[in-house]
Design a protein that fits this description.
single chain; alpha+beta; Pseudouridine synthase; 2 domains; ten-stranded mixed β-sheet; four-stranded antiparallel β-sheet; 16 strands
Length: 363
């Protein structure tokens, strides 16, 4: 199995191979020329209790990764990094405001005096009864400035109007795969380490999680790309698993149960078609594709059967992900003839880079 996985590594395709909504954009722009050109503000979407053993800190970071901030917070409060909670990873190169949690008694808050730096500020604090968990936030609000825009301004606006009307392919972005797909190229090593008792458990666990996520994301992207090329990524196929917008709830209907009402809900983004995140299938899972949808998924994923088997052996559990997402409250304005400012909000799990990919080529 390992040798086959090694052979497959040379076949990894970059994100440039993925199908666009129509044709690849011919316009271009420069992204992240300044840290303030890419700002993200995390919205938890739930009320904090105001009491409890966990101190929540809303932190503004500049040119720092989420992991770097978590390590600094752990060091300042004399905690293990594992004790620090956060809802999601935020871009390093940008100005990002997000929440962290740490178990810290009230009489020990003075330990935070060494936490703030020029590129790291505490915006607000509040107590809560539970640790902040990955994926527990609701939205991320973006303000993105594209500079040195080159090409026809009308094409920028046409592309923006298109994603507003049809939604955005829910591709996993480059961040999931690492520079030059480095996370994917570690798959064979992770498979080997899974049977090597001499490997560092903590490092092996972190690497395994990262590589598994990248491999599943890659396979999902291939299926989504194929459905876009077949023009059925936003059209119901018999046996499709559907997702209720803004939730983790999935459901299925039989062919006879597909109605005009459901078709209208699909058109207006109230529900979405889903694609597979491969792994071991739970026999009790009710939300598995069938019929025409399953045939298409099987045809696309057939060449990756060894990887899918490996993912199951590594403990990955099969799940589903919507094939599209929408940008909430999207707005744009030209600051001058070559500078375009975008404002929008995305639900957790959606990549701003996947949105930008449909608008222009970014440097």
């Amino acid at each position: 199995m390992l040798n086959k996985a090694v052979q497959l590594e040379s076949n990894w395709k970059g994100l440039e191979s993925l199908t666009y909504l129509t044709v690849p954009p011919s316009v271009s722009a420069k992204l992240k020329q300044k840290f303030s050109d890419f700002t993200v503000t995390e919205d938890l979407g739930f009320e904090l209790t105001g009491s409890g053993e966990h101190l929540y800190l809303q932190v503004k970071k500049t040119n720092l990764s989420t992991i770097e901030v978590a390590k600094k917070l752990a060091s300042s409060t004399q905690q293990k990094v594992a004790a620090v909670g956060y809802a999601g990873m935020k871009d390093r190169r940008g100005e990002c405001t997000q929440w962290f949690s740490v178990p810290l008694e009230s009489n020990n808050t003075s330990l935070l005096s060494n936490f703030e730096k020029d590129n790291l500020q505490i915006v607000s604090t509040q107590r809560n009864s539970r640790k902040l968990k990955i994926g527990s936030h609701k939205l991320n609000h973006f303000e993105i400035t594209l500079r040195e825009c080159s090409g026809n301004k009308e094409e920028f606006e046409t592309n923006l109007a298109r994603i507003t009307e049809f939604g955005i392919p829910n591709y996993f972005g480059q961040q999931r795969f690492g520079r030059e797909l480095s996370n994917l190229h570690q798959l064979s090593e992770v498979i080997q380490e899974a049977t090597d008792s001499h490997s560092s458990k903590s490092k092996k666990r972190f690497k395994r999680s990262m590589v598994i996520s990248a491999a599943r994301a890659y396979l999902f992207n291939q299926l989504l790309s194929e459905r876009i090329s077949k023009n059925n990524w936003n059209k119901y196929l018999s046996g499709d698993v559907l997702n209720l917008n803004g939730t983790d709830r999935n459901f299925v209907v039989d062919q006879a149960g597909w109605t005009d009402s459901l078709a209208e809900r699909l058109r207006t983004f109230d529900i979405h078609i889903t694609g597979p995140l491969p792994g071991a299938i739970d026999p009790k899972d009710r939300y598995i594709s069938s019929a025409e949808a399953a045939d298409m998924e099987d045809a696309v994923l057939e060449e990756f059967s060894v990887i899918i088997e490996s993912l199951g052996n590594l403990g990955a559990k099969a799940s589903r992900r919507p094939l599209r997402f929408t940008a909430e409250k999207i707005d744009w304005s030209w600051l001058d003839d070559r500078t375009l400012k975008l404002e929008f909000a995305l639900r957790r799990g959606a990549y701003a880079t996947s949105l930008l990919r449909e608008i222009c080529i970014t440097e």
